[in-house]
Amino acid sequence: MLGPVILAASRSDRMRRLISAAPVTKQVVDRFIPGETVDEVLPIIQELTGNGLELTMDVVGEDITTPEQAAAARDAYLELIDRLGPLELGTRAEMSVKLSMFGQALPGGHELALANVRPVVEAAAGIGTTVTLDAEDHTTLDSMFAIHEELRKDVPQTGCVIQAYLFRTEEDARRLAAAGSRVRLVKGAYKEPAEVAHQQKHEIDKAYVRILRTLMEGEGYPMIGSHDPRLISITQELARTAGRKLDEYEFQMLYGIRGDEHLRLAAEGHRMRVYTAYGTDWYGYFMRRLAERPANLGFFLRSMISRG
User: Which of 20, 79, 121, 261 reaches 20 to 30 Å from 153, CA-CA?
Assistant: First the structure.
């Protein structure tokens, strides 16, 4: 399987230097990451929302090694919020954050990450939008869920992400499927050991459907993070069975992948949110997108050959 190999490469400094230096890399990366600065992505935000889509914005970068870098990540999100405010998009443009960017892995990281993310969550609420805490590898999740619970005391619309491939997630979903919660369900994009996660695609897919049913039958707001046509159809059927209206759940897909499907779902009246990343530290994010779908890797390799 190529996925684990690509994920290993995402942590390799040598591979980072090699891929980053390739002349055609930026042209290919632009498919998934439309800019490096707020100024570059604002037109994208306006274009997508003008087409009836919604967004969740991610400032890429996870290799935080100092408290100063964590503070800079916080400030990058605060700048984004400051620029989004005048657009008056409300929840049509929310944010996704990785707590690793806010210092979670540093000494005292739990408290540091909470202190850094809290002003971002509060500022987002101040312009009428929300923040979702992304899930990372399994060793970080207890801290993430604890921070999520703490933030929701003051900003209850704060969302979180759960990953279908982890054994723990079915129990997490039952706990989170409560009134007022916002939960994004994804398959998972980190290399996890067999002791904690399903390893086979068919097992992950089955777990995804079980967890999705729990969320749909619960009282919270499910956010379905998948490009899989079969899972999208299953979502629609489970929503109908649960008696959910079209505005009581949403689909989420990555910028640059299945753009026609984004527009189709929005045209049918679904809430369709595009996960849109930007920033200079794009390598880890880009490599995980390749690992998630072999089609992404094929696109990258074909582009490298044709443009090289």
Answer: 79
Residues forming the active site: 134, 184
Average pLDDT for residues 125-130, to the nearest whole number? 98
User: How many angstroms separate the CA atoms of 306 and 308, rounded?
Assistant: 6
Torsion of CA 230, 226, 252, 259, to 10 degrees: -80
d(CA 288, CA 293) in angstroms, rounded, equals 9
Tell me if the pTM is above 0.85.
yes
pLDDT band with cut points at 50, 70 and 90 for residue 10 = very low
Note the pLDDT tens digit of each residue in 234-270. Answer: 999 999 999 999 999 999 999 988 999 999 999 999 9
